[in-house]
Amino acid sequence: MAAVNEAKSEKLQLDKKYSNAWEKYSKEDLEAVFAFNKGYIDFMSSCKTERECVDEFVTRAEKAGYKNLENVIAEGGSLKPGDKVYANNKGKTLAMFLIGSEPIEKGLKILGAHVDSPRLDLKQNPIYEDTDLAMLETHYYGGIKNYQWVTIPLAIHGVIVKSDGTKVSVVIGEDDNDPVIGISDLLIHLSADQLQKKLKDGIEGEDLNILIGSIPVEDKDAKERVKANILKLLNDKYGVIEEDFVSAELEVVPAGRAREYGLDRSMVMAYGHDDRVCAYTSFEALLQMNEIDKTAVALFVDKEEIGSYGATGMHSKFFENVLAEIMDRAGQYSELKLRRALTNSKMLSSDVSAAYDPNFPGVMEKKNTAYFGKGIVFNKYTGARGKSGSSDANPEYIAELRAIMNKHGVTWQTSELGKVDQGGGGTIAYILAEYNMEVIDCGVALQNMHAPWEVASKADIYEAVKAYKAFLIEA
Ligand code: MN
Ligand code: MN
Where are the beta strands (DSSP E) in 307-394? Predict the structure, then answer.
């Protein structure tokens, strides 16, 4: 649908930057904001890995009528407008499609977010014993500040795949009756040398080792008796042996539930807002749609935090291949039509942005930063050192989007990640832009991004769903 002409309602001077969503909400709106965030908090409390997010989305999508594309193909089925279908890539990437009434070659409306988050992965040979303590070796995943991950309760989530192919799902540290694990820090009393180091060197990546046990196994002749005892516990509970860790994907994350944050409960503290806050809101927006003009897609990808490489990252051919299958099932496939569909598409690359933080004003340029409560954030570009590595969105596309947001009463703002030359970041936007589609980064602003516990505004989360839905209706 074409953009509406909003010229008459526009003010001469920009005040949008400073409108606070909380001030526009009626009593009913406020109830809706808090109710939506209650569901989000539950989701964030139980979905802490890419696999857990994909599993949860598949379960809920199926209830909403989405069919597995593999089954559609196996049964020789066809797809028609209004059909809902999903493709699950190795349990870690998910693409959901709502088939539109227009030919697919006219383009798609794509909401794309990532479901991996910074964390500590276990190494392949993780378990060792030192001075009667059992420990786990980790290798951090994504950009973290090492010192933030010590002396906090940690949990293990993931899978162990045995040599016979059976897969064991592991979650330890989330139930109130579960133990937690953790990484120690040096006592202040003996930190004279450590405190002289640069912040980044105070805790070294190789020293992010997790303490997991201290009781020796009964067998006095056994070697490394504490480690042996832990392996016995794991064997009793999961039927795994030490070699099984070689074929495991075990992720160490902050233990515990997401929480309401602030005395007025206006914010959410959670592990992994980046980027599950955009994934969840994109998912909810698509789920609310039942018919559409151009085919709608919600794409949830893995590996963004380590460069989007690999079979489950955005650089993979997965999405392109699945779109070919979809067009084939819809009786619309040709190589040329596939290319046209991609080129004619519009995308919101939904990822988080940095919220202004009164504790660290020095890294922000106040006129071009995002603020809590001021709605969904559009980042025309990301990158670093002169926008390098960025997909710089076209103003024609931004004009269309701002008209859509205004028409639907969405509170929105624009931002850069921080001051020029203060740092930078990237998203999946540039990868989809390689198809020559229109893409812009668009998401929720956070404090503490990439810390174990990140903070987002409930109003911004709510405005994100409204924005994604408005995009699906109008773009
Ligand atoms: Mn992100
Ligand atoms: Mn990130």
Answer: 346-349, 353-354, 376-379
